[in-house]
Design brief:
Rossmann fold, 264 residues, globular
């Protein structure tokens, strides 16, 4: 079964909670393809740090992995935010029905309650850009938890994507919308800091990982929006994304897969 078919089923199985993540479908699909092009996930233990409702964790489970998610924003015991799940017992019922475990854990508060060297693959998908502080502790925690030779896979928006470059030329900030950041104060859950491909690669190297695969992908291209001239901002965004297909460093998402070094 292809990653696209797996994800379609996962979205059905986690509906209606997965409806809010329709715009992320292509990103999830390309992340799965990127990872599985280098790693056979069947039978592997996977920890998804910042898992949200568990879309990637469940997809990897359907591909044969033994996956578990870790998150805390989605739980009702947390301060209300964009990611909080209403009717939490219903999403728990879906997890149980699909034999998926999502545990409450704050990935910024390390160490997590998992044993050293106990995991084959750690995933951190579109998460590090939300961290309030440096991701150093998260990278170190991933290194601690992975078995020798285990894989760490990180995806994150590309700060150097073409649309942000264009915005900067015209005096607009490449960062998250200022009004949203300004008004939400300490409840802000958007992107605190974004990274370029070379920056993510450097963080892997500094943290004791050998790069297995790196690259950028366009994951938010919607051709139909090119035809809607009434929505000029979205039209310009799609044009920038289209052009970036021939400018690899300017695509919208960074994907990096690293491997924990082993002593020879």
């Amino acid at each position: 079964m292809s990653s696209k078919e797996v994800l379609r089923q996962v979205y059905k199985d986690l509906a209606p909670f997965s409806d809010a993540y329709q715009s992320d479908f292509v990103r999830f699909q390309k992340a799965l393809d990127f990872l599985t092009s280098k790693v056979n996930v069947a039978g592997k233990s996977v920890l998804d740090l910042g898992s949200g409702i568990g879309i990637m964790a469940l997809a990897l489970q359907r591909l044969g992995a033994k996956a578990k998610g870790v998150d805390h924003f989605i739980f009702p015991t947390e301060k209300a935010n964009f990611y909080t799940i209403q009717h939490f017992n219903e999403i728990q019922n879906l997890w149980n029905k699909n034999q998926l475990e999502i545990v409450k854990g704050d990935i910024t508060q390390t160490p997590l309650t998992f044993t050293d060297g106990s995991v084959d693959i750690i995933l951190c998908d579109a998460t590090i850009e939300h961290l309030l502080h440096s991701p150093k502790a998260l990278f170190q925690e991933a290194h601690r938890l992975l078995k020798p030779g285990g894989y760490f896979f990180v995806t994150t928006p590309n700060l150097a994507n073409l649309l942000r470059r264009i915005r900067f030329v015209f005096g607009r900030s490449p960062y998250w919308d200022l009004e949203n950041f300004f008004n939400q104060e300490d409840n802000f859950r958007g992107h605190r800091r974004e990274y370029t491909l070379s920056e993510v690669v450097e963080m892997f190297s500094w943290s004791g990982f050998k790069i297995v695969k790196r690259g950028t992908k366009n994951t938010f291209f919607h051709p139909k929006q090119l035809l809607d001239i009434r929505k000029l901002p979205k039209l310009l965004a799609q044009l920038a994304t289209l052009i970036a297909y021939v400018m690899p460093k300017s695509r919208d998402m960074v994907f990096v897969l690293g491997r924990k070094w082993t002593k020879s």
